[in-house]
């Protein structure tokens, strides 16, 4: 990890820069696959599964027999953990339910909002080097609470044509409607366009590699909404001289093991703490099964010493991290100053892993600096707010003239007339 001591503010832009991904070369490939899925449906999806996932599929749908088998393959301890995590996620997201109220903006003019679930949502769950059954809980649980009618899940099978059993168990617990064996671009295309087997959805959620991200961006231009733009995962840790170096190193490495393009930034006001953390990272890295992946991610990562707490929190806000951990004695004070972050972890015991799995907050978060404008997935992500208004004759008398005047000033005579004929009727 690169060490940077007391950088000037004008140098921060370089510090917060993410690893650059050039997706221009894969865009043509992604478009070609999407076009093929759109034209040929299931047949094309199966061909790409053979090509990319090396599996010959008779059917894309996961059968009830496979769901039943998964129950026998996941041990009771993991099932209990999944259930606990689901219950906490459910509790937290239920607290986000919208309660609308009717507002009288003028006598006789009443306006209100109603929250309505998106009827059909698609969830993409990567297989890859780590089957993310936790993401099933994070995406499906709020969808179920919101009242989405169809919750469609796509995930790549292994070479035997099987889906990871923990993914299937999590899907059952969280209330997924339909599960299909499809990964990568072909999965995004299937949910965006619909095939003979896979229903077309209205919004797609979920993480993935650069091909999946490019496919989501592509289909969002014309065909379907997506949760948010995204890049590789990242963490920023702020710590003071009293922080626990082994905790910090573990947090940095838990992020680094996600993938070689992940990034970890450590910000501290203590040079001695930086050295402690650096040594502890080296020690813990040697013990990790995913050591090679984590080591490459650390090449993108930085250790930074700043002059004071003000600089520490300002630099973190400039970085706008997906995950922000504040392990300082005054974490409550610094927390009040956080303005750009996906999810924040306060104190020495709040590791990112808690939020990734079981605290109850959602781990599907904005990355790559998008936290300056986007929030993570929440209950509202699965809903739309529809506005209503009701006018009585008294309402017409109060706002009618203003509507006529404004419509006329914009040169929209039909707009003005729609109000004018009602005013005349009341005379």
Please give a handful of descriptors for the protein shown.
427 residues; alpha/beta; 6-stranded parallel β-sheet; 17 helices; 14 strands; 45% helix; 17% strand
What would you note in describing this structure?
By secondary structure, this protein is of the alpha/beta class. The chain contains 17 helices and 14 strands. Strands 1-11-10-9-12-13 form a 6-stranded parallel beta sheet, with helices on both faces. A hairpin with a 2-residue loop joins strand 2 (103-106) and strand 3 (109-117). The longest helix has 19 residues, at 76-94. The N and C termini lie far apart (78 Å). The mean pLDDT is 96.
For the terminal residues, how far apart are their CA atoms?
A: 78 Å
Which secondary-structure class do the elements indicate?
alpha/beta
Per DSSP, the total helix count is 17
Major beta sheet summary:
6 strands, parallel
Q: Specify the helix fraction band.
A: 40-55%
Radius of gyration: 25 Å
């Amino acid at each position: 990890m690169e060490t940077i001591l007391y950088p000037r503010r004008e140098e921060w832009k370089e510090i917060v820069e993410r690893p650059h991904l050039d997706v221009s070369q894969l865009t043509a490939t992604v478009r070609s696959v999407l076009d093929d899925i759109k034209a040929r449906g299931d047949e094309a999806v199966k061909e790409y599964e053979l090509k990319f996932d090396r599996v010959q599929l008779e059917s894309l749908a996961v059968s009830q027999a496979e769901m039943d088998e998964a129950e026998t393959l996941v041990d009771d301890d993991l099932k209990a953990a999944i259930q606990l995590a689901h219950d906490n996620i459910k509790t937290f997201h239920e607290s986000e339910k919208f309660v609308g109220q009717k507002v009288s903006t003028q006598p006789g003019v009443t306006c209100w909002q109603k929250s309505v679930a998106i009827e059909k949502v698609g969830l993409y769950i990567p297989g890859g080097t780590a089957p993310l059954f936790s993401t099933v809980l994070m995406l499906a649980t709020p969808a179920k609470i919101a009242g989405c009618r169809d919750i469609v899940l796509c995930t790549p099978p292994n070479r035997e044509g099987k889906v990871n059993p923990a993914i299937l168990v999590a899907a059952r617990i969280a209330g997924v409607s339909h599960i299909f064996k499809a990964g990568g671009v072909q999965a995004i295309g299937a949910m965006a366009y619909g095939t003979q087997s896979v229903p077309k959805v209205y919004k797609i959620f979920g993480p993935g590699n650069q091909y999946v991200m490019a496919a989501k961006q592509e289909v969002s231009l014309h065909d379907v909404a997506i949760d948010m733009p995204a890049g590789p995962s990242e963490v920023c840790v702020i710590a003071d001289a009293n922080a626990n170096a082994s905790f910090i190193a573990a947090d940095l490495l838990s992020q680094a093991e996600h993938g070689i393009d992940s990034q970890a930034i450590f910000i501290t006001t203590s040079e001695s703490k930086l050295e402690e953390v650096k040594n502890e990272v080296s020690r813990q890295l040697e013990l990790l099964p995913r050591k090679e992946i984590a080591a490459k991610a650390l090449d993108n990562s930085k250790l930074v010493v700043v002059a004071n707490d003000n600089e520490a929190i300002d630099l973190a806000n400039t970085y706008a991290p997906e995950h922000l951990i504040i392990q300082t004695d005054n974490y409550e004070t610094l927390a009040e100053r956080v303005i750009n972050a996906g999810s924040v972890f306060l104190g020495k015991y709040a590791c990112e892993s808690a939020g990734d799995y079981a605290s109850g907050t959602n781990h599907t978060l904005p990355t790559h600096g998008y936290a300056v404008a986007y929030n993570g997935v929440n209950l509202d992500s699965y809903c739309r707010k529809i506005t209503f208004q009701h006018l009585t004759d008294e309402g017409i008398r109060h706002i009618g003239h203003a509507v006529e005047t404004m419509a006329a000033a914009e040169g929209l005579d039909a707009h003005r007339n729609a109000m004018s004929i009602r005013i005349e009727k009341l005379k």
